[in-house]
């Protein structure tokens, strides 16, 4: 679906990830292949959705993209540099460019740290600024995600689920990344909270020139957040197309089965939705 002249922020080529396993009874060793030659191009400034059923390889892929796991083979080209060949020092700096927001903010936030400390922590890890400048940056980020300055001294358990996810987003933005990966970030939220967070993400994308990858199993959500969709099945990308095209003219049999299973009607791709995604 991509033309040669498009500006890709991220290009993945031939990515594989294998895990060594051992059978409980026989003790025999075997290999599980979670990713099988994944190829994916993510245009700069896009909002892409990565969809597929549980076990398709979505979470493994994004953990590799976020450099939390090292692929077995392949390339992850980010702005012209293969992240898998960088020195330790350069890789440490590159990690700031790609940030991940997890599904459950409760488990990803330190319960003993205040909201301000949580948001400022990435800056401290990267040795950026002074304690005072880090604090000011954290206050500004909390304001950008819709949380008042007075909430900065609260602990995670004092916030609602939606507010905790806002803190997680603020923390992810602290290092001014170019790519934000949201791994099922809205699946545990009610509809009203989800919609308010989606509006926040649209605003943040414009403010910070962000590129998004939304990981989701909810195809209805995809119509609200993504301009294009990549479909995963058994560790491979089986289809990648603009959202409206994929929902109305899916080419992959697996994609069509997904749409049928979710009872997605082509009417959900109306003029308003397509306009929002542009």
Can you characterise this structure?
By secondary structure, the protein is of the alpha/beta class. The protein contains 11 helices and 10 strands. The strands form 2 sheets. A 6-stranded mixed beta sheet has the order 6-7-8-3-9-10, sandwiched between helices. The protein has a 4-stranded antiparallel beta sheet with strand order 2-1-4-5, with helices on one face. The two termini are 16 Å apart. The C terminus is likely disordered.
The largest pleated sheet is described as:
6 strands, mixed
End-to-end C-alpha gap: 16 Å
Helix proportion of residues, in percent?
Answer: 25-40%
What structural class do helix, strand and pairing data support? alpha/beta
Number of strands: 10
Q: Going across the biggest sheet, name each strand in turn.
A: 6-7-8-3-9-10
> What's the number of helices?
11
Overall tally of domains = 2
CATH class membership of the largest domain: Alpha Beta
CATH architecture of the largest domain: 3-Layer(aba) Sandwich
CATH-assigned fold name of the largest domain:
Rossmann fold
Overall 3D form = globular
- Assess the beta-strand content as a share of residues: 25-35%
Overall pLDDT, averaged?
Answer: 88
Low-confidence stretches: 265-278
List the helices and strands in order.
Answer: EEEHEEHEHHHHEHEHEEHHH
Could you name the CATH homologous superfamily of the largest domain?
A: P-loop containing nucleotide triphosphate hydrolases
């Amino acid at each position: 679906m991509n033309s040669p002249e498009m500006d890709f922020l991220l290009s993945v080529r031939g990515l594989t990830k294998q895990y060594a396993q051992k059978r409980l009874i026989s003790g025999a060793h075997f290999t599980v292949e979670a990713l099988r030659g994944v190829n994916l191009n993510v245009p700069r400034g896009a909002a892409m959705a990565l969809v597929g059923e549980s076990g398709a390889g979505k979470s493994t892929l994004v953990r590799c993209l976020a450099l939390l796991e090292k692929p077995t083979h392949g390339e992850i080209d980010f702005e012209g540099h293969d992240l898998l060949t960088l020195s330790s020092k350069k890789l440490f700096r590159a990690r700031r460019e790609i940030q991940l927001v997890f599904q459950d903010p409760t488990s990803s936030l330190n319960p003993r740290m205040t909201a301000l400390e949580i948001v400022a922590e990435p800056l401290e890890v990267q040795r950026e600024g002074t304690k005072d400048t880090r604090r000011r940056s954290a206050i500004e980020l909390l304001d950008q995600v819709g949380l008042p300055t007075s909430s900065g001294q609260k602990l995670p358990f004092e916030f609602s689920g939606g507010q905790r996810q806002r803190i997680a987003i603020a923390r992810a933005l602290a290092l001014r990344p170019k790519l934000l990966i949201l791994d099922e970030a809205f699946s545990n939220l009610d509809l009203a909270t989800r919609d308010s967070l989606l509006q926040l993400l649209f605003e943040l994308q414009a403010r910070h020139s962000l590129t998004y990858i939304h990981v989701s199993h909810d195809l209805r959500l995809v119509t609200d957040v993504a301009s294009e969709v990549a479909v995963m099945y058994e560790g491979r990308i089986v289809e990648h197309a603009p959202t409206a095209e994929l929902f109305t003219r899916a080419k992959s049999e697996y994609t069509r089965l997904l749409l049928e299973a979710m009872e997605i009607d082509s009417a959900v791709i109306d003029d308003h939705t397509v306009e929002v995604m542009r």
